[in-house]
Specification:
Length: 399
């Protein structure tokens, strides 16, 4: 007897019921509070729940339990029926105020790791976003440290290129003396050098701001607007005060800090990319993910009744083709790391092929060449499958 195949939309109610009653441990007093179970982008199951936990590891442990249950729900064999299997599973943790604390996205292949008791592989190959208080503070420390180190490298490179060994003369005396004192205190006397760039390790945001402002002409090609640089440094220092005293970093501060981080390191990467290679790779990943995600979301979902309405189909395809064309334009402007040129070229070529096929499909629709359109539609579907595989490789292996 042929098994009945259940579509994902038809399984969501059963999945939610199972999650609500699921108790990961026999002695569990209560199950997880499940808020919603959704299916988005034609490929991803999203489970949203409320947690009472505050510790990041406790929340991650809960998410692993829900991920394991959801993956098993779709992957375990059933004698009577088969289920359409999602490509990805996302678990979102919220607090009682419905503020998102953390979420994870795993491909269905990656989700299988957690069902088999292999949490390290699951964590390594999944994509997490963490907005717990603990993480926001740690992330602020990381970003501020990266900005400070990048500015120190920039200052040394610019001043040394301009004045060679006399570069220290470009630094205000009080700043230099204070940094030199700390440098001598923390450096073995046998290797001390009063002109070492390591002295800059003992300068901090207000000092770095003053050095660059005092040498505005030398830094003008790196920061075209000194006013914008000054304003951003002032805002950055305000966040640093909270970070240095281990105070709570708000989501608004975290978002502002990310923009400041991008401002400083993007400006440096454009003129002196060798100083910030990690940022170039990091930014490349982020930009490509945005491009691919936006493109996938733009794919039209045309139901059976709309397929018979040519004007609706044509309008949907025109909008879709414009989105692909925009993606092709955006990807050509992304700064590419040297060791990612091949992968970037693959994606660029794939997007251009999709754009070309869509243009042909539009012309066929307008001309009423439906048989030719169907053939091109098959070609388009194959290209989308390639794009999907690229996305999985990028999100879960490259990231």
């Amino acid at each position: 007897m042929k098994k009945k195949v259940m579509q994902i939309h038809d399984t969501l109610g059963f999945l939610k019921l199972g999650l609500i009653s699921y108790k990961p441990h026999p002695n569990s007093i209560q199950s997880h509070k499940i808020n919603s179970v959704d299916y988005i982008n034609h490929n991803t199951i999203v489970v949203t729940y409320t947690t009472s936990k505050l510790d990041r590891l406790d929340i991650r442990s809960e998410m692993a339990e829900l991920m394991s249950f959801t993956a098993s729900f779709y992957l375990l064999p059933d004698e009577k029926s088969e289920m359409e299997i999602p490509k990805s599973i996302s678990i979102k943790a919220q607090n009682a105020n419905k503020d998102q604390l953390m979420y994870v996205v795993s491909s269905i292949e990656t989700a299988q790791y957690i069902t088999k008791g292999r949490p390290i592989e699951w964590i390594k190959n999944s994509m997490f976003e963490d907005t717990t208080d603990e993480f926001l503070l740690q992330n602020a420390k990381r970003l501020i440290s990266k900005i400070e180190n990048a500015l120190r490298e920039l200052i040394y490179t610019v001043l040394y290129n301009a004045s060679q060994k006399d570069w220290i003369l470009k630094i205000e005396t009080n700043i230099y003396k204070s940094a030199l004192k700390q440098y001598k205190k923390n450096t073995d006397i046998a290797v001390q050098d009063i002109k070492s760039k390591d002295i800059l390790s003992y300068t901090y945001l207000p000092n770095l701001k003053k050095i660059i402002e005092d040498n505005g002409i030398s830094f003008s090609k790196h920061f075209t607007s000194l006013v914008e640089f000054t304003n951003n440094m002032t805002e950055l220092n305000q966040i640093r005060r909270d970070e240095s005293h281990n105070r709570k970093i708000s989501k608004e501060q975290s978002e502002s800090l990310q923009k400041l981080y991008d401002f400083f390191l993007m400006n440096i990467s454009k003129t002196l990319p060798n100083l910030v290679p990690d940022y170039i790779i990091e930014n490349w990943h982020i930009q490509l993910k945005l491009i691919v995600d936006n493109l996938i979301e733009s794919i039209p979902n045309i139901n059976d009744s709309d397929r018979r309405n040519f004007p609706i189909v044509i309008i949907a395809f025109i909008k879709y083709q414009k989105s692909v064309e925009l993606a092709c334009s955006k990807i050509s402007k992304v700064l590419v790391p040297v060791n990612k040129q091949h992968l970037h070229s693959q994606l660029s070529s794939l997007l251009n092929s999709i754009n070309s096929v869509l243009k042909s499909m539009l012309e066929m629709l307008k001309s009423g060449l439906l048989d030719d359109f169907q053939n091109k539609f098959t070609e388009h579907k194959n290209l989308l499958n390639k794009l999907s595989k690229f996305g999985e490789t990028y999100l879960f292996n490259e990231a």
